[in-house]
Design brief:
Blueprint lengths: L17 E2 L6 H4 L10 E2 L4 H19 L2 H9 L15 E5 L3 H12 L3 E6 L9 E4 H11 L2 E4 L13 H6 L4 E5 L8 H10 L2 E6 L19 E3 L9 H16 L15
Helix pairs in contact: 2-4
Bound molecules: NADP nicotinamide-adenine-dinucleotide phosphate (NAP) and glyoxylic acid (GLV).
């Protein structure tokens, strides 16, 4: 399932296993009648991970190379060189160092960026500066000229991109949110853009999708938006992965990518 109607899964008396067609399971776990005693697995597809990293690399490069400024100059017919840092001087921070965050970090590092990440647990990732938990968040934010959100949406992470956290970023920082719309307090981003605290944002996900036609993000000069396409579920590559988990279940072998409903991801 991807987004079953709340209560639908509870109405199936012979249900034994719930397989999410997406990497994120916030829609599923938000169902108050979800049969939480049943095993739930989410989709982890290396091709989907590659696709997310393509998106993150594309958008980080766009921000790093001042693509929005050059677009604006082109529209105004202006020929002007803008200051440009080297990638090694550009500090990128990644919220969430799971399947997607770790791969994006690795690929950004390969391009030379100065990358650090943030996660819940104290686990380290070889070659990557990692911060953890509530104490680690200000450390990650304080150094992130480009902040990329790849967190799951949980009770703890909802609204994590808000006026207080955006204020901890270096002045003029940029944001990429490819996780879930509810991570961002949208009005706080608009205020941070208006004050210059944030210089630009690239958003793939929104509190309401499709984004309403009258939403201020549509025509904001400092916002690039895409319609929740950073990493699609590809049936061709996802089907064998899902099948493998069904076989594992039928044979009593351990399931892959099991969700912990108490943790929320
Ligand atoms: P994942 O493997 O479960 O990784 C989640 C990461 O977030 C982990 O590093 C985890 O920390 C960290 N985390 C969770 N709660 C936290 C908290 N309260 N504080 C600090 N760190 C926390 O998930 P994933 O496969 O990378 O996917 C991440 C999300 O991307 C999905 O949930 C989905 O919402 C989104 N997504 C979006 C698209 C799109 O097209 N836009 C496509 C696919 C996925 P630990 O490592 O310590 O557990
Ligand atoms: C897409 O947003 C997913 O969670 O797979």
């Amino acid at each position: 399932v991807w987004r079953p109607e709340p209560g639908f899964l509870a109405s199936l008396p012979n249900l034994k296993l719930i397989l999410s067609l997406g990497a994120g399971v916030d829609h599923l776990l938000g169902d108050p009648q979800l049969p939480r005693h049943l095993p739930i697995v989410r989709l982890v597809d290396p091709h989907m991970t590659d696709a997310m990293s393509e998106y993150v690399v594309l958008q980080v490069l766009r921000l790093h190379r001042r693509d929005l400024d050059y677009r604006a100059q082109q529209e105004a017919g202006v020929w002007r060189e803008l200051d440009q840092k080297n990638a090694v001087e550009r500090r990128v921070g990644i919220l969430g160092l799971g399947e997607l965050g770790q791969d994006a970090a690795k690929k950004l590092k390969a391009l030379g960026f100065d990358v650090a990440g943030w996660r819940r647990s104290e686990k380290t990732v070889t070659g990557l500066r990692c911060h953890a938990g509530a104490a680690g968040l200000p450390l990650l934010l304080g150094r992130s000229e480009i902040l990329v959100c790849l967190l799951p949406l949980t009770a703890e992470t909802e609204g994590i991109l808000n006026s207080s956290t955006l204020a901890l970023l270096p002045r003029g920082a940029a944001l990429v949110n490819a996780a879930r719309g509810a991570h961002l307090v949208e009005e706080h981003l608009l205020a941070a853009l208006a004050s210059g605290q944030i210089s630009a944002a690239v958003l793939d996900v929104f509190r309401e999708e499709p984004l309403p036609a009258d939403h201020p993000f549509w025509h904001h000069p400092c916002i690039v938006l895409t319609p929740h396409v950073a990493a699609f579920t590809n049936p061709v590559t996802a089907a064998p992965i899902i099948l493998d988990n069904i076989r594992r279940f039928e044979e009593g072998r351990p399931l892959l990518n099991r969700v912990d409903p108490a943790r929320g991801y």
